[in-house]
């Protein structure tokens, strides 16, 4: 992965800028071990449903009708597999030489990303169905280039390239695609995460985990968030920011492994750290403390 300087911290409208001059009663001596143990607990509690699309019969009443016009039948399913197996199944589809499987993989990323706790399944199906309008040759060419960049660990550049794909045109969904392709080196960066990280900087008193998040991620995480259609300067900033996000996740995974804390599936990966952070920012206890 190319080496980048850390992006400039604190967007003018971000919580960290607003909080810069506020008193911070932080115990700087707290051990990262406490934060790591909490991350371990949160990673093991991660339970986002492994929801995706699968091949189905053409007369399956649950199939997504948008794909009928291109001769494919996909139906939604929550599969009963481990998360590494789930990631691998979608990555294998995206990397396939078969156009139908590549399209299935892309639609599954979109479906999974919108699925939530299952309450958004219909909305997720609608958004996934929109990927049927993508021309097969274009999709295959773009995916080949994205995969080449990902395998070269150029995560920020691959993220920007992914913006061109249907329903993927922001860091929120492009980072999901990249993470399925490289869970050891990348993690999702969506709006819930970067805004939640920013709110940690508003706290006058932090737990060990909150302090770790505030130091390691919060001041600059916003720089990795972008959308299709921005200026070259904006795209470059987003690519650098996402590269640093991935670098910090990988460093955290290395630190957790060095601390002899077992990850949710064995050795820690970047994606495992990101999911623990996501779980932390969505937990009732931490979310309420961040908005107090």
Could you walk me through the main structural features you see in this protein, from its secondary elements to its overall organization?
- The chain has helices at 15-19, 32-45, 83-94, 99-115, 121-129, 136-151, 155-162, 171-181, 191-200, 208-216, 232-258, 270-282, 284-291, and strands at residues 51-55, 74-78.
- It is mainly alpha-helical and 292 residues long.
- It has a two-stranded antiparallel sheet with strand order 1-2.
Explain the layout of strands and helices.
Layout: H1 15-19, H2 32-45, E1 51-55, E2 74-78, H3 83-94, H4 99-115, H5 121-129, H6 136-151, H7 155-162, H8 171-181, H9 191-200, H10 208-216, H11 232-258, H12 270-282, H13 284-291
Antiparallel strand pairs: 1-2
Helix pairs in contact: 2-10, 2-12, 3-4, 4-5, 4-8, 6-7, 7-8, 7-11, 9-12, 11-12
């Amino acid at each position: 992965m190319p080496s980048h300087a850390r992006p400039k911290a604190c967007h003018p409208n971000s919580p960290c800028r607003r909080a810069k001059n506020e008193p911070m009663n932080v115990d700087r001596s707290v051990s990262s071990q406490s934060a790591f143990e909490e991350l371990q607990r949160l990673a093991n509690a991660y339970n986002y449903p492994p929801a995706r699309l699968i091949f189905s019969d053409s007369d399956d009443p649950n199939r997504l009708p948008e794909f009928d016009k291109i001769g494919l039948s996909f139906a939604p399913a929550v599969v009963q597999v481990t998360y590494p197996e789930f990631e691998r199944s979608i990555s294998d589809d995206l990397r396939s030489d078969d156009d139908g499987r590549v399209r299935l993989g892309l639609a599954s990323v979109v479906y999974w990303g919108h699925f939530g706790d299952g309450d958004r399944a219909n909305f997720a199906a609608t958004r996934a169905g929109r990927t049927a309008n993508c021309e097969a040759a274009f999709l295959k060419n773009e995916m080949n280039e994205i995969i080449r960049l990902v395998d070269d660990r150029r995560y920020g550049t691959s993220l920007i390239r992914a913006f061109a794909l249907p329903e993927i045109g922001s860091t929120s969904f492009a980072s999901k695609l990249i993470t399925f392709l490289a869970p050891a080196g990348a993690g999702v960066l969506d709006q819930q995460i970067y805004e939640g990280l920013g709110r940690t900087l508003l706290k006058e008193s932090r737990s060990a985990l909150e302090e770790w998040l505030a130091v390691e991620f919060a001041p600059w995480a916003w720089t990795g968030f972008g959308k299709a259609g921005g200026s070259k300067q904006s795209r470059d900033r987003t690519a650098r920011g996402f590269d640093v996000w991935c670098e910090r996740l990988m460093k955290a995974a290395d630190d957790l492994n060095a601390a002899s804390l077992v990850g949710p599936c064995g050795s820690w990966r970047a994606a495992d750290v990101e999911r623990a952070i996501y779980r932390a920012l969505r937990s009732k206890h931490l979310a309420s403390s961040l908005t107090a």
